[in-house]
Amino acid sequence: MISDSPVNFSPDLINALQASPETDSTRTKDLELHIQRRVHSELARLDAENSKRLAELQEQISASPDSTTKSIHPDAQTPDQSTSSGGVDHKAAAEGDKLRDLGRQSVQKEIDMLKDKLKRRKIKEEVVQNKSIEKAKGEVVNCLRLNDRRPLDCWREVEAFKEEVGRLERDFLGKVMD
User: Is the pTM of this model over 0.85?
Assistant: First the structure.
């Protein structure tokens, strides 16, 4: 929109603006500080809410019957399992126990799976116990000691060592890929 008449400011307004100690940078800093205070207070409020909710959930979990006793003694009934109640709290507690058991089962299953993988990977023990690599390494070291002025004369021993390491790598990759 284009104005047909020129814009005039009163001399009082111009003097007030010129006499003001505030600059653009100080206004920006003040605004930034105000925003930071608001963000900080909001984060503190959210943190307090989350802490309160966490405490409530921990209290609910600790107040609920221990599901490990049910898995050990599935026929034993706890006081919450009485057939006379059957209320909403009973259903919610049963669902929570079921979810907790599923979580424990999945974590235990994953732990067992990782243990199996670790048993299959005994890399360092195989390398240390591999006699052919130790023999090839010893031959390279002996050759280099004998030919300390001419290390290039040990190329046969180095190649034999490389072949043994390559064989061990292929074996390892074969085990990992299976």
Answer: no
